[in-house]
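Per reviewer request, we include the raw input and output of the structure prediction for the construct analysed in the revised manuscript.
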Amino acid sequence: MNALEASLTRSNDALMKRKKKQRLIVDVDSTEDPAHGKQENVAFNGHFGKNCFHRLFAFTSDGDCLRAKLRPGAVHSADGVLEFLDPIVKRYRS
């Protein structure tokens, strides 16, 4: 997973440099990803009413994906969001 995240980061660095944005607006969303069988971290989520993963995404205001994280299905939408955003803020704050 580290190689995939590093690749996404390199791609985003080039994209941000090309766009020359003065302000970066980050949109954080979670979404359920229905799962079947006994996959690791699949759990029942009462809000969605199904067994799932509860993925977390960070996008720019242009819709470019900055980061993604696979989470267990039973976590709250906001669970771990600050820790998830921290690397993005540190990387692009300047």
